[in-house]
Structure formats: structure tokens, C-alpha cells
């Protein structure tokens, strides 16, 4: 026991005096003292020769010795310069990392999320539908039978394989799918992409995005429609914005209206954007036509509802003062990088 304690003290002194300054020498140190056939292990192996009554005290000495050796090795590693401390060839962990450039959201996504957020606060849930629709959900159930002239308002891409299939021309088809589920009341907004066979210009594209809204319950009135949309506009464009409703026509609503807001660019005095009128149209709306409710299996004597639909591109153009619709789908990073997330 006595001699072992001496051995340990000598060994500690030796470790302290050794100052390996390369990774190779540090590794030699580790093998000599902490390796499986190293000094620490072999001294520990002496434990079996220590008399039983001294085992406890010696155990403590040994333990402390082992901790000392490990700490010394740790200190040696830390004293090597970062480049030397390579950690077995895995690379220099002290070098700065390769930065990942964060992207930014697409302006259409930003505006869509904003619209969704506002309606969610009013208790609307999100409903989504497929972009490939059938004639019933896109047209017929919405009170547009085969020969109805209103079908011409929306030039349609039909699918050659099956004349009953088409790329939805509006998100109103999602209304129909939700109504057919038969669970009432319904309070949903439906964001999504829609397609129209149009000549591409600064104001029209063959696809764009819409958000549809639908609220059906007992005693829903036009006053509820106005109040809901008024709240939306104020949240979206600020408290000073004015609204007006103009009578309009949609086959699936009666009465129908288009909602205008006071022009954000000129404040109402007249400019190119509002075509000198001071007003800009932002959405179509109305009370769901009783014939639509009936077609979708809802009792139109008991329930009433309102619906609305707006183009996201249109709102984004007003919000960001973008003059050409094509910019949203050209993927020009110089354009897209200007939208950082703040609306
Ligand atoms: N679906 C119409 C369109 O694409 C927009 C619309 C108007 C939707 C009135 C509605 C509505 O739900 O009530 O032009």
C-alpha cells in the first residue's frame, strides 16, 4: 500500500511534467496513462493485493488518481491550438460554419396567411379542395347549368380525357363540397389556386389564387355579411379605409354585391390604379342562393348564409403597390427578395 501511494505520487508528478504539444504526443500520453494497458489501469489492478481493511481508503486514492489523469489529459487537449485539435480528422470544429441563407415567403403566401389569420379570429375554419374538379362542383351545383351564360364569365380549361373534368375556375367549388357534407353550421374560408383560360397580361393570368368564404346557419343576414367584410377590410388595410357595396350578379348568390374599398394609392382623389374613380373592387359576395342550398341538401327554409370570394393577387397588388400580375409567378429573385415577411 505504502509503495503504491508512492508510485501514484511519482506518476502524478511525471504527468504534470509532461507537456505534449502535438496531437500525436497527446495521443501517446493518453495511451501511456489512460489506455487499456496504461499506468492507471495497472495501478488499479493492484487493488486485489490490498488488505481488506485498507481497501476502502485505497479505493478513494485510486479514484482520485484516475480523475487526476483524465483532467490532465483534458488540459493537454485544450492546450493544443484549434487546428491541431482536429478530433481524429473529422474537421476543425472551431471554424465558423457555412451559413444557410434564410429565404423569405412568397408575397402571395404572406397575403394569404394574413387573410386567413383575420378570418380565423372571427371563428372561420380552413377548408381546402382539389384543383381538379368536376362540372357539378364547379358549375352546376352553383346554379350554373350547362347552357348558362355565366359559364362564359370564366373561360375554362377542360381535361381532354374526360369532358366532365376541369381545372377549377374558382374556389366556390369548395363551398359545395362542404355543404354536401351536411354538417351545420358552416363557417369556413377556402384558400387555393384557380385556373382560367385567359390571355396573359399585366392584369390577367391563366392561374391565380382566391380565398372563398362561407357562413351558413340559422338567421344569417346581409347585415352579418357586411359587418364581417367590414371587419376584414379594416384589419387588412387599416381603420381609415372606406367600403362600398355595389349590386352585382352571381348565379349562386341572391342578392349579390361587389365590394369596393377606397383607393389606397390616392386616398380616394383619383389615380391610374382606381381609374380616376377613387374606388377599387376587391371581392364578390352575396347571400347564398336558396337553389344552391337545396342542391347541396341544405333546407333553405331553415338556413341562410352568405358567401364571398376574393383574388389574393389583387389584394397583394394593392397592398404592395405591384403593377404587373406576372411578377408574382416569374420567380425573379430580385422581386421576391423584397418581401421579408412584414406586411
Ligand atoms: N366565384 C366568384 C369568382 O370567381 C367570386 C365569388 C363571388 C365568390 C361571390 C362568392 C360569391 O362566394 O358569393 O369570380
Strands, helices and their partners?
Elements: H1 2-17, H2 23-34, H3 39-45, H4 55-79, H5 107-121, E1 125-126, E2 132-134, H6 135-138, E3 158-159, E4 162-167, H7 172-180, E5 186-195, E6 207-217, H8 222-237, E7 243-250, E8 253-262, E9 279-288, H9 290-295, E10 304-311, H10 312-320, H11 333-336
Parallel strand pairs: 1-5
Antiparallel strand pairs: 2-4, 3-4, 5-6, 6-10, 7-8, 8-9, 9-10
Residues 170, 172, 212, 250, 253, 284-286, 307-309 line the site of 3,4-dihydroxyphenylalanine (DAH).
Describe, in short, the structure shown:
This protein has helices spanning 2-17, 23-34, 39-45, 55-79, 107-121, 135-138, 172-180, 222-237, 290-295, 312-320, 333-336; strands at 125-126, 132-134, 158-159, 162-167, 186-195, 207-217, 243-250, 253-262, 279-288, 304-311.
What do these coordinates show?
By secondary structure, the protein is α+β, with helices and mostly antiparallel strands. The protein has two domains: 2-87; 107-339, BirA Bifunctional Protein, domain 2. 36% of the residues lie in helices and 20% in strands. It has eleven helices and ten strands. The strands form two sheets. A seven-stranded mixed beta sheet has the order 1-5-6-10-9-8-7, with helices on both faces. Strands 2-4-3 form a three-stranded antiparallel beta sheet. A hairpin with a 2-residue loop joins strand 7 (243-250) and strand 8. Helix 5 crosses helix 10 (312-320). It is elongated, with a radius of gyration of 37 Å.
Amino acid at each position: 500500500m505504502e509503495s503504491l501511494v508512492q508510485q501514484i505520487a511519482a506518476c502524478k508528478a511525471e504527468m504534470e511534467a509532461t507537456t505534449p504539444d502535438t496531437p500525436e504526443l497527446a495521443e501517446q500520453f493518453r495511451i501511456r496513462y489512460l489506455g487499456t494497458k496504461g499506468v492507471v489501469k495497472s495501478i488499479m489492478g493492484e487493488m486485489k493485493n490490498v488488505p481488506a481493511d485498507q481497501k476502502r481508503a485505497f479505493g478513494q486514492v485510486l479514484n482520485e488518481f484516475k480523475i487526476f489523469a483524465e483532467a490532465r489529459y483534458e488540459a493537454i487537449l485544450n492546450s493544443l491550438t484549434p487546428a491541431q485539435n482536429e478530433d481524429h480528422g473529422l474537421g476543425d470544429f472551431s471554424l465558423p460554419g457555412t451559413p444557410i441563407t434564410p429565404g423569405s415567403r412568397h408575397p402571395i403566401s404572406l397575403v394569404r396567411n394574413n387573410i386567413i389569420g383575420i378570418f380565423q379570429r372571427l371563428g372561420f375554419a380552413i377548408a381546402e379542395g382539389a384543383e381538379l374538379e368536376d362540372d357539378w362542383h364547379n358549375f352546376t351545383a352553383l346554379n350554373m347549368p350547362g347552357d348558362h351564360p355565366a359559364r362564359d364569365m370564366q373561360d375554362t380549361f377542360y381535361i381532354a380525357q374526360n369532358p366532365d373534368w376541369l381545372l377549377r375556375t374558382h374556389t366556390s367549388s369548395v363551398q359545395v363540397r362542404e355543404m354536401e357534407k351536411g354538417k351545420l353550421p358552416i363557417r369556413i374560408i377556402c384558400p387555393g389556386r384557380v385556373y382560367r383560360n385567359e390571355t396573359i397580361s399585366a392584369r390577367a393570368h391563366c392561374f391565380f389564387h382566391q380565398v372563398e368564404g362561407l357562413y351558413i346557419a340559422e338567421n344569417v343576414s346581409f347585415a352579418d355579411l357586411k359587418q364581417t367584410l367590414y371587419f376584414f377590410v379594416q384589419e387588412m388595410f387599416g381603420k381609415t379605409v372606406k367600403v362600398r357595396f355595389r349590386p352585382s350578379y352571381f348565379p349562386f348568390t341572391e342578392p349579390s354585391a361587389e365590394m369596393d374599398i377606397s383607393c389606397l394609392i390616392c386616398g380616394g382623389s383619383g389615380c391610374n390604379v382606381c381609374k380616376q374613380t377613387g374606388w377599387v373592387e376587391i371581392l364578390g359576395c352575396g347571400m347564398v342562393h336558396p337553389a344552391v342550398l337545396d342542391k347541396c341538401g341544405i333546407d333553405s327554409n331553415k338556413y341562410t348564409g352568405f358567401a364571398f370570394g376574393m383574388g389574393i393577387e389583387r389584394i397583394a397588388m394593392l397592398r404592395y403597390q405591384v403593377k404587373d400580375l406576372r411578377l408574382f409567378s416569374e420567380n425573379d429573385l430580385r422581386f421576391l427578395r423584397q418581401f421579408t415577411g412584414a406586411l
